[in-house]
Structures are given as structure tokens and as C-alpha cells.
Write the C-alpha cells for this entry.
Amino acid sequence: MQIRSLEKELSKNTYPGRGIVAGRSDDGRFAVAAYFIMGRSENSRNRIFVSDGDGLRTQAYDPARMKDPSLIIYSPVRVLGHDTIVTNGDQTDTVFEGLEKGLSFERALRSRTYEPDSPNFTPRISALLHVEGGEYYYEMSILKSHHGNPECTDRQHFFYDHPIAGEGSFLHTYVSDGNPLPSFEGEPVRVNISGNIDSFGKLLWESLNSDNKVSLFVRYIDLETAESETRIYNKWE
């Protein structure tokens, strides 16, 4: 797969939905994770990202306007030891609890399927970044209905050992806007990663559709020290 411009991938799509980027900085020093959410309804747009220790949670921007918290209020990021878990739903907790029990990332997700939001059946997308002793690998997963048929769940898992500097993998929920929303197809898109955490975060935030973007999380993890830096962008702050 040819490497693509992440800026172009985002700017050409008005509604990729929710998206995860995992990869390695162009100087090779950092593991990189990013997660964004978008929204079309008032309820989906009424959210912000809030730090939660070394993790992240979604929160209503205006609690009085929150109609239904299911599927939109969750912890997108949790950290367990050397592992950073990033997902688009409450399967973050499923992975966290599975790892605690000694399950693999892939095995922990066996108990989950796509989201129960017919007719979209939004895919559950997840990533795990493992940084330990200067070594780094990441995994990604997508659980989705079988071409819109809810009777079957397609479970796709991708493992990347020794990620290449300046490259990442981009996985998102929808091919594009639509009714119903068409699920992502194929393997994660191979994209470029460049710059420090601030320039990379700015590129992502400014490339997302201004009407539909809601929040963005970016984290750089030092491969030698395992110390991390985080940036959060919220449309409503």
C-alpha cells in the first residue's frame, strides 16, 4: 500500500466518523497515538474530551442538552502498565479488563461486536500501543457487521512490529457520510506522521471537517523513557 497524506485523507472526507492513528514519529523517538470524534446530531456534538489520570474520557459539554449518553460517553483511552489502549467505545474497558486477566488484545475483543445503532451498525475500532525497554509495537482491530448484515461480525486484527519512523496506520469508522453510514473497508490506511506533537496535532485538527469535528486527542510516548505528552482539542472550549 502506498503511503498517503494524512492531511489529504482527512480533508477530503467530510465524515470519517471516529478515527484512530497509531504509528511512530519521523525522528523515531516516539510512539504516536491519536483519536478523534465527529458528530452529526446535536447529542453527538455536545461532547468534549477530558483528561482522566493517564487516560481520557468523553463528557457532555452542556449536561442539560445530553439526551442519550449510551455509545457517546465512555473512556477512549486507558493505560495498563506498558500498554496504551485507544478505542471508540466502552470496549476500552473490555480490553483493559482482558489484559488484566492475561488475555491478548485480540482475544479480549472476542466478546464484543459492532455498535447496536441500526441501521449504521457502527464498527468498533481499537488500538493497543506497547512500549517497553525501547521496543515498540502496536495492534489495531475493527469489528463490523458483514457488509451491513448484522447476523455476522467481521473481526479483523492487524499487528505492526517495529513500526517505521514517519509512518502510521489510520483506521476510522465510516468510508464517508451517508444514510446509512457505510462502514470502513480494507486494512488500516498507511499514512505519514511528521513533526512534533504540537505540529502533528494542529495538522490533524485543522484537516477535520469544521462542521462535524468535535474533539481530538494526541499522545507522544518516548520510546526510551516511556514518558508521554498529551494534547487535547475540543471544539466547544
